[in-house]
Amino acid sequence: MQIDLATLWYLTIGTLLVSAALTLWERQAHPGARASSGSGRAPARSSRSAAWSR
After folding, report:
1. pTM of the entire structure?
2. What are phi and psi of 6, to 5 degrees?
3. How far apart are CA 41 and CA 47, in angstroms?
4. Residue 32 has what pLDDT?
5. Cα 35 to Cα 4: distance, rounded to the nearest angstrom
6. What is the pLDDT of residues 42-51, one digit of tens each?
7. Across 17-40, average pLDDT
8. From CA 46, how far away is CA 54, in angstroms rounded?
9. Three-state SS letters, 1-54
């Protein structure tokens, strides 16, 4: 299988543009949301988690 350099370039740039567009779209859809601290979990909801822990 052979891919010329222009095709590889277009695929790379296209992927980066789509990624940037989706990131901006998500930021507009959820304006107050912040990125998590890196724990991999969603923040706990205080009212529900307190009710279930009793």
Report:
1. 0.55
2. -65, -40
3. 17
4. 85
5. 38
6. 666 666 655 5
7. 84
8. 13
9. CCCCHHHHHHHHHHHHHHHHHHHHHHHHHCCCCCCCCCCCCCCCCHHHHHHHHC
Question: How many Å apart are CA 17 and CA 23, to the nearest integer?
Answer: 10
The rounded distance, in Å, linking the Cα atoms of 8 and 21 is 20
Tell me the C-alpha distance between 51 and 39, whole Å: 23
Cα distances (angstroms) measured from residue 25 to each of 19, 29, 31: 10, 6, 10
Structure tokens at 12: 């790379």
How far apart, in whole angstroms, are the C-alpha atoms of residue 11 and residue 28? 26
Give the integer Cα–Cα distance in Å for 45 and 24. Answer: 26
What's the token pair of residue 14? 């296209």
Cβ–Cβ < 8 Å for 42, 36: yes
